[in-house]
Amino acid sequence: MALDIDFVRKQFPAFAEPSLNGQAFFENAGGSYTCQPVIDRLTRFYLQRKVQPYAPYEASRLGGAEMDEARARMAAILGVETEELSFGPSTTQNTYVLAQAFRQWMQPGEAIIVTNQDHEANSGPWRRLAEAGIEVREWQIDPETGHLNPEDLEDLLDETVRLVCFPHCSNVVGEINPVTEITAIAHAAGAFVCVDGVSYAPHGFPNVGELGPDIYLFSAYKTYGPHQGLMVIRRPLGELLPNQGHYFNAGVLYKRFTPAGPDHAQVAACAGMADYVDQLAAHHGVAETDAAARGAAVHDLMRAHEVALLQPLLDAVSARNSVRLLGPDRAEGRAPTVALALNRPAEPVAADLAQYGIMAGGGDFYAVRPLGAMGVDPAQGVLRLSFTHYTSKDEIAQLIEALDRVL
Ligand SMILES: Cc1ncc(COP(=O)(O)O)c(C=O)c1O
């Protein structure tokens, strides 16, 4: 069964918004449109439940219950225990807190591995552990292709390595890394694994339990939700690392690595992402009673639609001599996040595209290290064209036509 794109687009008010009419959105890797159930829940929370949650009066009880519902339902889709999922202000802030926990837990002389394929959020906070005497080893991409080779990781691992950090998918290379394979390699060497899933999760929520990493992070404002960072920490690691929250909350796993008070309304509205998955599942006749199975079916519907739309775009851009496509030119192995290095600064080209109704961006996208490693001047940046399952065939055609005019 193919994704019903008309049904999908009806769930996003942005597509009916007059001020956005005629404009095709291609900066989804920066942040997605928000689905109706999330907007409804956020609105309801602010109108009816905007009181301190978990107190014994009705508005408060409902607010707290909705926050719990969001955690339980998203955890179920992700294939992990409810307590293993926590909400923080952003992925960058979540990795920052995690890095403080590792800094306290690790000993000088022990090592971590980071990549030069990651967005800075899953790189810089870990690299700063060098200040505490921790050895930081860099797993490097191929400078031509941007590919991260798991065999190179094996050469970096030894008994001193405690943690391996890498992206499920880079926000400029776009290639989907084999998380299960890499995790198995790291685990065999006795290291924990932290995966940045920010660039992957918008293309279908993964079953993190099956994938296997100890930590998996993504940002809800890119997965049709509110501005929150979702963080899975599997229980054995979460209980091992020192608590970063209030001392009296140390016994509650989901509070251990979110020291700030949560944004109640946005946490509650995250349940709208689960509503959306369920709406898509029901509409497409997915009969699974298990949330992770429904999530997997919806994931596959989204991916199939994206892959079909992506290949013509990849073909169109790779046919141009003046353009360097970063990452693979086959749609199957990559996310629809297409970064192009041009022979000039990218941002003015994005501005030119805007004249043809294309919303896209140019710059380094905080992927300064991968761009540098691939020989792209971060000051010139890349033109990034990123879409999701709600993008239509017509919008891809509009983009390719606009590229013909501006490139
Ligand atoms: C791959 C990747 N990781 C991490 C982040 C940071 O996420 P946040 O904005 O939630 O801190 C981004 C943001 O663009 C990203 O693209």
UniProtKB/TrEMBL annotation:
GO terms for molecular function: transaminase activity. Signal peptide: none annotated. Keywords: Aminotransferase, Pyridoxal phosphate, Transferase. Residues 25-399 form the Aminotransferase class V domain. InterPro entries: Aminotrans_V_dom (IPR000192), PyrdxlP-dep_Trfase (IPR015424), PyrdxlP-dep_Trfase_major (IPR015421), PyrdxlP-dep_Trfase_small (IPR015422). The keyword DNA repair does not apply. It holds the Pfam family Aminotran_5. PANTHER family: CYSTEINE DESULFURASE, PYRIDOXAL PHOSPHATE (PLP)-DEPENDENT ASPARTATE AMINOTRANSFERASE SUPERFAMILY. This is Aminotransferase class V-fold PLP-dependent enzyme. It comes from Ruegeria pomeroyi. The lineage of its organism: Bacteria, Pseudomonadati, Pseudomonadota, Alphaproteobacteria, Rhodobacterales.
